[in-house]
Write a structure and sequence with these properties.
Blueprint: E1 3-7, H1 13-22, E2 26-31, E3 44-47, H2 53-63, E4 67-70, H3 77-87, H4 94-101, H5 103-112, E5 121-124, H6 130-134, E6 141-145, E7 155-157, H7 163-172, E8 179-183, E9 188-197, E10 200-211, E11 219-224, H8 230-247, E12 252-260, E13 266-272, H9 280-289, H10 293-301, E14 315-320, E15 326-327, E16 342-345, E17 352-353, E18 364-370, H11 373-392
Parallel strand pairs: 1-2, 1-4, 2-3
Antiparallel strand pairs: 5-8, 6-7, 6-8, 9-10, 9-12, 10-11, 11-14, 12-13, 14-18, 15-17, 16-18
Helix pairs in contact: 2-3, 3-4
Length: about 400
């Protein structure tokens, strides 16, 4: 029985851990949280901070693993890559992982290789004269941490007077205390999910996305199929492939966010070298495309033959349970099938709820499948509102 190590064991990583066990692999997991929900599904686990590369490597060597991966978080990417490289396992090259973790280096690479239509980009750190730089910026711009996750610390800046404060927010949300500034693009956001197997790029899905309003930019939901024309979706997939090639991504999952303007210009706004979060790998891609994404990702990580068989697909729409600030007052036992729509949550009576500003503020998801994506979109929005009134009260 081959052994696979999952870096991270939170709510979204738990789906990957369960899938690996279902596929017959001996499944190990690490996470800094001793109460991480994914631990209950693993064959074996250890309480280790997932950004501690050396301690995670020591554990991987001790357990003699055959494969390693992370999913749904950027914080485990470097560790998974480091372990794979040090142990000679399948995985993303460590120098490439470091490049992708740095949003500015990624943007610079895309610009130099003419991958998309984005033009303006700057890097700032504690040594940057932000006041001086603010006079050279063409507004509006997006300011975001160089190595963040889940939209934390990202904000839109409309004018010079707000620039310094936004940069400080982004740098304080960055592990390396650096931020990237790039032109704000007025467009509609889409997601793309890919898997690189033996250097071959498979763009598995293009998804519609919904985001929060300014100044925060956090995901609110996804849908397949998109509202793009077949020609435009083909262009998006080509742009995604070109980006992966330009960055030198040799193996594993790639999660990408793009903006498309009314002039049909394509702008890549974020790239993660791991499976996307918010049910993308566990539900959205399998339902919307018929591809068992997590199974393929796991098989790829241990060097087994990857099964890319496509089964029946359906329209799928998700929406995050993004509430106003409050306290969970009740969670009815039948809430998981609220109005015939699946509600996937981690709510408990007495939990405090933050105003939704980043993905980490979400309380779960509403998921609907069927044949008409527009009807499903309308339905999940209604159910989200009903769930909020039910659990928080009027």
């Amino acid at each position: 029985m081959k052994k696979i190590l999952i870096i991270g064991a939170g709510f979204l990583q738990a789906y990957v851990i369960k899938k690996a066990r279902e596929l017959g692999y001996f499944t190990l997991a690490v996470d800094a949280d001793e109460n991480a929900i994914g631990f209950q599904y693993a064959d074996k686990y250890a309480v280790i901070n997932i950004v501690d590369e050396e301690t995670c490597l020591e554990y991987a060597r001790k357990e003699q693993i055959d494969g390693v991966l992370t999913a749904a978080t950027d914080y485990g990417v470097l560790t998974a890559s480091y372990i794979a490289q040090q142990m000679g396992l399948p995985g993303l090259k460590y120098d490439i992982a470091k490049k992708i973790k740095n949003k500015y280096e990624t943007r610079k690479c895309l610009f130099e290789n003419h991958v998309d239509d984005t033009e303006q980009a700057f890097l700032v750190d504690c040594n940057t004269n932000l006041t001086e730089l603010s006079t050279h910026i063409s507004y509006p711009v997006m300011v975001k941490p160089c190595d963040g996750s889940g939209s934390r610390g990202a904000s839109k800046v409309e004018c010079m007077k707000d620039f310094v404060k936004a940069c400080e927010l982004a740098m304080n949300s960055s592990i390396s205390h650096r931020a990237e500034i790039e032109s704000f693009i007025d467009g509609k956001e889409y997601g793309a999910e890919s898997l690189v197997i033996d250097g071959n790029i498979h763009v598995l899905a293009v998804m519609q996305k919904w985001m929060t309003d300014p100044p925060y930019y956090a995901e609110l939901g996804h849908a397949i199929p998109t509202d793009l024309t077949p020609e435009m979706e083909k262009r998006v997939k080509l742009c995604v492939k070109n980006a992966i090639q330009a960055l030198g991504i040799n193996s594993g999952s790639v999660n990408m966010d793009l903006l498309i303007t009314t002039e049909d210009k394509i702008h890549i706004v974020d790239i993660g070298a791991r499976m996307g979060g918010n049910l993308i790998g566990s539900h959205i891609v399998p339902i919307g495309t018929g591809i068992d994404y997590m199974a393929a990702m796991i098989q790829n990580a241990v060097g087994d033959k990857v099964e890319m068989n496509v089964k029946a697909s359906n329209a799928v729409v998700t929406r995050l349970l993004a509430f106003h600030k409050g306290v969970i007052k009740r969670v009815p036992s039948n809430i998981n099938t609220f109005d015939g729509v699946q509600v996937i949550h981690h709510m408990h009576v007495g939990d405090s709820v933050n105003e939704y500003h980043t993905n980490l503020d979400g309380c779960g998801y509403v998921l609907a499948t069927g044949s008409n994506v527009d009807n499903l979109i309308h339905k999940v929005v209604l159910v989200c509102d009903q769930v909020e009134k039910t659990v928080l009260g009027d």
